[in-house]
Every structure is written in C-alpha cells, then in structure tokens.
Amino acid sequence: MDSHAAALLAMGIAVGLGVIGAGLGMGAAVSAAIDATARQPEAEGKVRTLMFIGLAFIEALALYALVIAFILMGKA
Amino acid sequence: MEQIHFGDHWIGHITLPYLGRLSVHLDTVLTAWLGMAIVIIVCFLATRKLSRIPNLFQVFAEIVMDFVENLTVGQIGVEGRGHVTLVGSLFLFVLASNLIGQLPWKLYHLKQGEFASPTNDINVTAALAIIVLIYYIGAGIYKKGLVGYFKHYLQPVWFMAPMNLMEDITRPFSLAVRLFANILAGEIIIMVLISILPVGLPIPVMLFELFIAFIQAFIFAILSASYVGAATSDSH
Question: Fewer CB under 10 Å: which end of chain B, C or N?
Fold first, then answer.
C-alpha cells in the first residue's frame, strides 16, 4: 500500500471512528434533554439552551476528527 | 463521477507598507463585505422612524434584539447587558455569512475557487474567535483589575494554572474550527450529492443547511457570551 492509499484509508477511518463517540454522546445528551422536558415542560427553553451548548462541545470532538481528515487529504 | 474540489480560493495580492506583499482570499473578502453590508443595511433601515406603534420591520428588529439580549443576560447575568453589542454583532454577522453560502453562487464562475459562505474560510472564523478571546480577557481585566483577573488562573489550586492557560487556547480554537468545519462540511455534502444526482437530491440537505446556519450562529453567540460570563463572574 503506497502512502496515497494509506492516507485515503486513514481519512475514512479517522472520520468513521471519531464520529462513533460523538454520536453516542449526542444520543445521550438529547435523550436526557427530552426526558427533562417531558418531566418539566415549563423548563423547555432553559433545557434547550443547555442542550445546545453541550451538543456544541460534543460536536467539536467529531470536528477534530474531520480536521485530521482534511490534513490527511492534504497529504494524499 | 467528477472530481470534487473544495477549499480553493481566488487568491489576490496586495502590498501594504511595513507588512510587504500579502496574499488575500478575494472571494472570502467580497462575501464577508456582502455579509457586513446586509447586516448594516438591515439594521439601519430597521431603526429609522422608530415609533410606539412599530411597523413590521421594527417588530422584526425588536424580536432579534430581544432574542440576543435574553441569550446574553442568560449567560452573563443582568449586569452583562453591555456585552449585548458584541454578542449581537457576532450573531448577526455569522448568521448573515452562513446564509450567504446558500445563494446560487454556482452560476457565477471565478478563475479560481468560487463564492461561498465567508465562514467556510478558516481565516474568517479564526479572526472572529480571536476577537472573542481578546474581548473576554479584556472584559475580565476591566471588571476585576489586572491582578484580580489573572488570580483566577491559580484557582482552585495553583498547579491548575497550565490547564487554565490551555483553556484560553482551546476555546478560540474550538470556536473557529467548529464554525468552519460545520459550514465547509455542509458544502462538501451538497457538492457530493450534486455529483451523484443534481436534480432534487441535494434539496433536503440544503434545507438542513439553512437550519445549521441558524444553529451555528446561535452556538457561536452563546459560547462567546458564556466565555465572557466566565471571565467576569466573581465566583469561580
């Protein structure tokens, strides 16, 4: 396997594996937010804001994987 | 399937005194100016002839203002109303920039690169993130004094100082990369779908990108507000 092919393969693996964790985290966060809203509908606005802040941090992790993929694409 | 290009820019050169020859992403500069022009013109028109009984335009401006103010006050507290100017400017500029990318720029061909959202260029988002970094350090120093502000780096215990310093690097980095990667990833997905089937297939993703534009502007604004709030709050 030459380095070009290795870089392309690594790109796919980086994004694929990186997104698994973020997906699990987002699932947990959104399910907890929906639980909280169903339990206490009057707190919906506050819960939504907190959920978005949390999702932003989780999403940043997946985006780091994406950035690594972009760097590898530059090498390919 | 045709080759997909992204991240290309229309590079121009300018020569400035003291700085020498600089290369500039002209497409980004032009679309960023367009975004600023949209924000300035809309805000200017919305604040003419203010009246007790508002017209439709003024109602819209008041809704936006209320939204930004609630967002800022929710993060910083009532004494943080002065920071609405920064948070609101960031929100409106990022929102306008994200939405510009959804216009049909593909009809207009450039020699190099293409017109898109200015926020798909890491230089723009990094500049915005550095503005936020300088602003929240400045706001902290203004509120608590030079010693008072830098003392919080030694909390809760003194050897946490490297972690607290690291936070000042990762915060603007993640702000910049989050916005940039979200917008660029959306454009890449649309490009891939267009290369598979140009008719109809990209439309749901384009609609989702409109939603993403709002969410990212909201997240950028709310995180900036929460950083300013963390820097100016008394308790740690």
Answer: N
Given the cut 0.85, state whether the ipTM is greater than it. no
According to DSSP, the β-strands at B11-16 and B20-25 are: antiparallel
Lowest-pLDDT range of B54-68, B108-122, B126-140, B178-192: B108-122
Tell me the CA distances in angstroms from A27 to A21, B178, B186, one per residue in order: 10, 19, 21
* Residue A64: closest C-alpha in chain B: B177
Chain A to chain B Cβ contacts (< 8 Å): 32
State the Cα angle at B211 between B210 and B212, rounded to 5°.
90
Q: How far is CA B124 from the centre of its chain?
A: 8
Residue B39 tokens read as: 């924000």
Which residue type is seen at A74? G
Chain B residue numbers touching A66 (CB-CB < 8 A) = 181, 185
